[in-house]
Structures are given as C-alpha cells and as structure tokens.
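Exercise 7. Predict the structure of 4-oxalocrotonate tautomerase family protein from Sphingomonas quercus.
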Amino acid sequence: MPFIDIRLAGSVTREQRSAIVADVTRSMVERLGKSPAAVQVCIVEVPTDSYGSGGILIADRPAAAPAQGDAPADGKG
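Solution. The predicted structure, encoded as tokens:
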C-alpha cells in the first residue's frame, strides 16, 4: 500500500489538491500496478512564514512571477 506525503509551501485550491491526488494515484496504478483504493496521499500545506530556505523565510522572499499553470501564492485563481 503506497503512502505518499506531499508538502507544499503556501496554499493551493481544493481543485488543485484533488487533481494532485488523482494524478499521483494514477501514477501508482500505472507504474506499480496498485489498486487505486490502496493509494494513500497526504498533502500538507506549509505556511510560507513557517518555512525557510537559504536562511530566509519563503514569505520574506521577493515574489517571483508564477510559472504557467501555477496558482498565485494566495491559492486564488
């Protein structure tokens, strides 16, 4: 039974979380031959003021332009 933990900095929409779960589940079915019911996916959204890299909180970094298909950092859109 695959257990997949995904941590994301910031927040994403419910629709995005649903799509991630569907995509990861489909990948485990295709690549490992697992039953969809056996695949467990846990998405944890880490607030950007609780996560840092390179000595700087993610929340304190200058905003970068979102990549095509990415949701804005506020999870809206």
